[in-house]
Amino acid sequence: RDPLTLLGIETSCDETAAAVVRLYPDGHGEILANVIRAQLDLHAAYGGVVPEIAARAHVDLLDPAIRQAMSEASVDFGDLDGVAAAAGPGLIGGVIVGLTTAKAIALGCGKPFVAVNHLEAHALSAGLTDDVAPPYLLLLVSGGHTQLVVVHDVGRYTRLGTTLDDALGEAFDKAAKLLGLGYPGGPEVERHAARGKPVIPLPRPMTGRPEPHFSLAGLKTALRQEAMARAPLSDQDVADLCASFQAASDVVRDRVLRAMALFEDRVPEGTALTLVAAGGVAANGPLRTVLGEVAVARGYRLVVPPPALCTDNAAMIAWAGAQRLARGLTDDMGAAARARWPL
Ligand code: KG4
Ligand code: ZN
């Protein structure tokens, strides 16, 4: 068998991304190019992603991103083994831009096309840079999703828990917004938290519940009340509020511990225990520390992809596409863009 070389395209939120990735017959991966054109400055003034602005920006940014990725990888379109795009879940206008472009390239070059679930791509991303194979327990924490999933195999997932309201990244973003910090909020809250003390009591929603679900909206409401009670906020107030919010990674500790017990019930006895974190919030330092502690306590190996593969990128789309292509799982030109698409 020869290696598979795929072009991947990601346009489901506010990153316009194109990447070229290779899957070798022994299962290991190589990133030949990983191009991201962030739209941050276009959305910053609004404190969040504006779908229509994102979709229009993808139209402008995608072709140059693909050209750059192909040129950095020194790969011709004719040398590709397939083209993959995120077909959802995400902001539908942007997804349509990437999906349609990928179909056009695949059709024009006579190559297989793979419609990738963005969540599956996050779920499999660790295998691109680390020697990790299913089954493993996945904590997926991004701006749009907060899930605990058993990854049994490519295409076989059991969702153990999800959020009943806000995603963890969304909670960070809202916390930052109400404290007058920049967007995206996660890195801002982390930065300010580092010079504060977690002295402000905030709730720990859902801890102790048997099912490893999350509920994060109450945390944001409590933070708002604490912030209003202290207005006008000093620099130290902001730092302490951020530190207190950041300390809510206790919730993640509790929920992951619960999911570990369920995971161990679901995998064959003797399975090496692995916890994989993915999604933008997995870039958070204090959260990584908590996950490290939990992993050590329960005898798990913790795998967190490098930050550039945790946040949205096209290498993970190409990688998931390659995994599917290797198993004969390709799609036809009728594959639809999906705003919602659970794993
Ligand atoms: O995976 P991602 O790039 O996009 C989605 O699919 O949502 O995740 C973006 C989210 C944003 O909410 C952002 O605030 C959060 O990840 N994030 C962080 C950090 N870096 C990014 N949250 C906490 N700490 C960070 N260092
Ligand atoms: Zn994502």
From TrEMBL:
EC number from the UniProt entry: 2.3.1.234
GO molecular function, one term: iron ion binding
Reaction equations catalysed: L-threonylcarbamoyladenylate + adenosine(37) in tRNA = N(6)-L-threonylcarbamoyladenosine(37) in tRNA + AMP + H(+)
Enzyme class: transferase
Positions that bind Fe cation: H118, H122, D312
Predominant place of localization: cytoplasm
Cellular compartment(s): Cytoplasm
Cofactor: Fe(2+)
Cofactor descriptive note: Binds 1 Fe(2+) ion per subunit.
Annotated Gene3D superfamilies: 3.30.420.40
GO cellular component: cytoplasm
Family annotation (SUPFAM superfamilies): Actin-like ATPase domain
Family label: Belongs to the KAE1 / TsaD family.
UniProt name for this protein: tRNA N6-adenosine threonylcarbamoyltransferase
Organism: Methyloceanibacter methanicus
